[in-house]
Design brief:
In chain A, about 20% of the residues lie in helices and about 35% in strands. Chain A is of the alpha+beta class. In chain A, the strands form six sheets. In chain A, strands 11, 12, 19, 20, 21, 22, 23, 24, 25 and 28 form a ten-stranded mixed β-sheet that branches. The model of chain A is unreliable at about 1-25 (pLDDT under 50). Chain B has two domains: about 5-210, PmbA/TldD fold (2-Layer Sandwich), CATH 3.30.2290; about 215-240 and about 340-435, no CATH class. Chain B has eleven helices and 21 strands. In chain B, helix 4 (about 120-140) runs parallel beside helix 5. The two termini of chain B are about 45 Å apart. The model of chain B has no long low-confidence stretch (mean pLDDT about 95). The chains are: A alpha+beta (about 550), B alpha+beta (about 450).
Amino acid sequence: MKRRDFVGLTGLATSALWLPSLPSFGGTEVDPAHLLQGGADVAVKKRLADAALNAAKAAGATYTDVRIGRYLNQGIFTREKQVQNIANTESYGAGIRVIANGTWGFASTNVVTEAGMAKAAQLAVEIAKANSKTQKEKVQLAPQRGYGEVSWKAPIQQNAFEVPIKDKVDLLLATNAKALENGASFVNSVLFQVNEQKYFASTDGSYIDQDIHRIYPTFSVTAIDRASGKFRSRQALSAPMGLGYEYLTPKAADKIAGPAGSDVIGYKNSYDILEDAARAAKQVKEKLTAKSVTPGKYDLVLDPHHLGLTIHESVGHPLELDRVLGYEANYAGTSFATLEWKAKNIPYGSKVVNIVADKLQPGSLGAVGYDDEGVKTKEWNLIEQGKLVNYEKIRDQAHIVGQTESDGCCYAQSWQDVQFQRMPNVSLKPSAQKMSVDDLVKGVDKGIYIAGNGSFSIDQQRYNSQFGGQVFYAIEKGKIAGMLEDVAYQTNTLEFWNSCAATCDQSDYRFAGFFNDGKGQPSQSSAVSHGSATTRFNAVNVINTARKIG
Amino acid sequence: MPILSKDESQAILKKVLSFSTADECQASLSGRTVGNIRYARNNVSTAGVSDNVSLAVEARFGKRSGVATCNQFDDATLRRCVQRAEEIARLAPEDQEYMPLLGPQQYLTPVSYATSTAAIRPDFRAQAAADSIALSSSKQLTAAGYLEDGAYFQALRNNKGLEAYQQSTGLDFSVTVRTPDGTGSGYAVADFTDATKFNAKNLTQIAADKAAGSRNAKALEPGKYTVILEPAALVSDEGLLNNLVYNFGAREADEGRSFLSKKGGGNRKGDKLFDSRISIYSDPLNAQAPGSVFDGEGLPVKRINWVEKGVVKNLYYSRYWAQKNGVEPTAFAGNFIMEGGTQSTADLIKSTAKGILVTRLWYIRDVDPQTLLYTGLTRDGTFYIENGKIKFPIKNFRFNESPVIMLNNIEAIGRPQRLGGNLVPPLKIRDFTFTSLSDAV
């Protein structure tokens, strides 16, 4: 049994004493006030970075990049009427990556002084030289111009770390109260906040200072029928976002209703946690007595909170070029979408499937000015009218697919981890023609509307997947016809995207997001958003997940 | 520096406690030296070493508690760390599930450390990767693998007289070997306390044989099949047996939200839920798969039976939940051991008229916590068995199955092997539910 299971089993997952061992809370426990103190001055960071760049060059590196990072986290954990834990952590240090003898080397240090940086740079060169003995192909970097001294800040309105903890605790406890008032048996709520203060410098001549914020409020509401022994849960329909605390000030314009008769509200750029908790409690009670689905083929109408996860698993991951090439074969897996497969021009999806990658959309988790190897971020097409046109790649991969520039999707979860290729935001373009959710449902004779992402599983080459959800509604003859339970659909990626019949317009477009997407060995976590509007898929195989145990 | 001795660590902890003005104070010191090497496409991609020692101080005033950490150990830093924990504690809300710190405890003598593993240097890792790559290249196959080894220590002390210390070592290795045309894939995985038992070549050979043997897989119809699940199909970070043990929490069961909840209230301790041949326990002193002798709060860990002859014998009780229910709290060793027989996987195959050999299950996610239903897929070596022999490779399947149902459909239990720090036998199970085919190799 791995440590993480041990931590989960013993209920220590929320015990502050063990927080440094939790992946999203690497770092040192600090006073909350400490999180408001500024990091080192840019001029100081430049001097420190130069110390590393110079030391690496002197030791024989032909390329060097330096990341000085200060990573701040705050997590507030509650259940019912009590606070379980409040954790504040800071992690500060530098990672230095070099090319020597045509081979990568990496070393990191938390001794962020000129001497400490130089020492780590020398160690990185030493490792590169040692590894070069077994290296078969020299690293080739796509050319990258230096940007000089530049900066980028996430366009947040209110720094969540500046909001008094008491206000945040009160909001979570009010959320729990809403759920309990509306009939929930149990409720857990959590607020995660992240601030990455990153300074990047490279021998290309870039000195890039960035300030990135993420926020994730979420809850789980459970209803129990003691007599029958049945229990059901419903998770929040919030999305983790690249926003500040303004995400938790709900605006009417950001509330998007599901189809008439469904009692679903989705959220765009702000989130009403109190309203969602009350609705979740009502829905979870309804789930206890909802009709169990009859397995078979159904037309599925998927809301963006749900569809984001399907996009993530069946488009975002298979188009990561490192997986395509086999670098993840022993862990995350490879991909069906090989270079040979792409050359065959087999349709990935129907003509309405237009999927775009980006690191730009305001409020998204992927949005940054520059990636972790100093490439200015951009938007590019992955799938155009159902046809695969491009992958997700970084500087040392571009030449493999005959291209001359990186897509800017290099990322490391902290200063002490080496950066590598990660998923950008991957989003389904909404319809250019006007199309509401009700219009979409109107055309469905026998279908299911699914809101919220739930259970998910997909094979290591991204063909066969199974997805659940948070709430399910039957659609009969163009109308919502009551709640269903025990629903999951199984599909093949190509069949699924080729069955895509129609998507709603921009007015329904919103993000789903994932705070801890894992890849690599040792595993690293990254955060990514997926935009879409509610979308219809025809004749998908739905199974019934109810079982009986003794 | 990273691996401190008992005396060195307790000296630091004593000093930390001497700086405390809190009602209660507990400090833990943990350290590690970890090295790794990763390769793919028959080429080393990354390698590294990291070490760290970290101190966590928990200060308590009444029911208010605060934690601070640091990784420098001069007096000024230690004093600041204690002060910060105390400042945070004063600002914290009262813990409604407060339990006083434990007093002095008696612990078993741990068996979780091997000097051979602690002595590993980069050339050992480089050689393991080179051996694995060479074997794979010589067979025109492609290897991707990962080796991580580490030495660790954990020390705990509080102002109620509790004092604990343990060292441990571990080595984890996994390798996926694929045919260059992508039509075959094989996998092998193993972990050890003692690195002298590790042989990269032998493990790569297993993965290579499975890769070569899984070319040109045939499709079988999804449905219920007799399966032989090798240990890697039962145990992983997300394994069916890990998930089963993970769900033995008493609180969740008593609250009515677990497969161990009893209709009408209470939990199912004492009920027979599995086949009579199923016994699962944890034991910190198991020589093959040793565990911790104390838990995070300093509670002594002893052998505990979770399932005995199919009957649920114990659930996990935190100190708070135990006190509330008038029972003893459960300390957990961090490992589990499933009893088995003497048959090897090959023996299980020999006695199978028709069935499927599963090397590995992957991407396992919960579907319904009510019945502990999980879904996931076979991967890296799935074969059809007929009349006691492997007949041909088959395409991968998706399964939807509950370990509770699975452990009632036992045909045979093999000889336990270590995996993920646990001991688990290969299992032959009837009526295992495959629900669809996957084209993935």
